[in-house]
Amino acid sequence: MDSKTIFGGNPFGVVIRLALLSIAVGVVLSVLGITPQNFLERLNAIVTNIYNLGFDAFESILGYLLLGAMVVIPIWLIIRLASARKASRPPDV
Predict the structure, then answer these.
(1) Can you give the residue ranges of every domain in the chain?
(2) What is the pTM of this model?
(3) How far is CA 69 from the centre of its chain?
(4) What is the distance between the alpha carbons of residues 83 and 50, in angstroms, rounded to a whole number?
């Protein structure tokens, strides 16, 4: 592989284009009041929120599991006991 294949053209030209594009984007971000420090702070806050959402979802699922189990387990137990009782009876002749 040569350098033109890796960079997508003349390496010096690519570096110049990337520098000019970086300056243009930097000006726009500066006008919007975005600095490297607050950008990293917001990025950290987003990652923290996504992390917390994951655990909140797990907590919600666990709550649904417990709530459903309060109904399902007693019904299952009653059905199992009733069918065990029915199976232990001698057949009517």
Answers:
(1) 1-34
(2) 0.46
(3) 26
(4) 47
